[in-house]
Write a structure and sequence with these properties.
37% of the residues lie in helices and 24% in strands. By secondary structure, the chain is of the alpha/beta class. The longest helix is centred in the N-terminal third of the chain and has 18 residues.
Length: 219
């Protein structure tokens, strides 16, 4: 896709993202966001904050909220939406998940909701999550993932993935996010769900959190 056409397409995605996701949010995503975010405290960093769908679910008791969104079109909508929320010390940064503008061990929580599916370098993004979390800090997750390898759905995910990636801004259907988090050094507390209202190829989900151990290997 040509650069100018790509920019135009991303601006369209950002403009209509909330509308396109409205049904799925109503059926399940909004409930899961509230479950995952309503009890957060301390210093929180969100990667791929998009249009700011999570903003309404963050509690007032958060000490500091940093929202990272590298896409300029998404970030524009995020900054506008932030004006409707009073979340104390909050700010927007343009950094990507692969290269976070944050010091090592500086956050109690890192939030990733429907983000790891589309980052350019998944393993590097996980390394960065480990780096910026405090020992014992939690990576809050709500991600769609690959179906069971032996299932027919997994076959269809592989078949549709090339086209899906182009239409959905690099979104992957077959990422083994849970096992890769474990390989990166996280301790997992996740459950499997199905995203109701979504196409079946994008419906398998993992939800919960992953803990940064107090001792990890070289970051």
């Amino acid at each position: 896709m040509r650069p100018t056409l790509k920019i135009f397409y991303h601006s369209l995605v950002a403009r209509f993202y909330d509308v396109a996701m409205r049904k799925v949010e109503r059926l399940c995503l909004s409930h899961w966001r509230a479950e995952l975010l309503s009890d957060l405290t301390g210093d929180v960093l969100e990667i791929g904050a998009g249009t700011g769908v999570n903003l309404q679910h963050y509690p007032q008791k958060i000490n500091r909220l940093v929202l990272c969104e590298p896409d300029p079109s998404m970030r524009k909508h995020l900054e506008l939406k932030m004006q409707n929320f009073q979340l104390g010390c909050s700010e927007v940064r343009s950094c990507a998940a692969e290269s976070l503008d944050a010091a090592e061990g500086s956050f109690d929580y890192l939030v990733s909701t429907l983000v790891f599916c589309s980052v350019s370098d998944l393993q590097q993004s996980m390394k960065e999550a480990l780096r910026v979390l405090k020992p014992g800090g939690r990576l809050i997750l709500m991600e769609h993932v690959a179906a069971d390898k032996n299932s027919r759905l997994h076959f269809w995910q592989h078949l549709w993935q090339p086209l899906w990636k182009r239409l959905a801004c690099n979104c992957h259907l077959t990422r083994q996010t849970g096992s890769l988090l474990e390989d990166a050094g996280f301790k997992l507390y996740l459950r499997e769900e199905i995203m109701r209202g979504a196409p079946s190829i994008a419906a398998p989900m993992i939800i919960g959190y992953a803990v940064r151990p107090h001792e990890v290997g070289s970051l």
